[in-house]
Amino acid sequence: MNGIGAVLIEGPKACGKTATALRIAKSTVRLDEDESARMALTLAPDQLFDQPTPILFDEWQVEPAIWNRVRRNIDDRGQRGLYILTGSATPKDDAKRHSGAGRIGTLRMRPMRACSSRGTPAAMSPCATCSTATPRRGRARPSTSRI
Question: Domain range holding 39?
Answer without folding.
Answer: 6-131
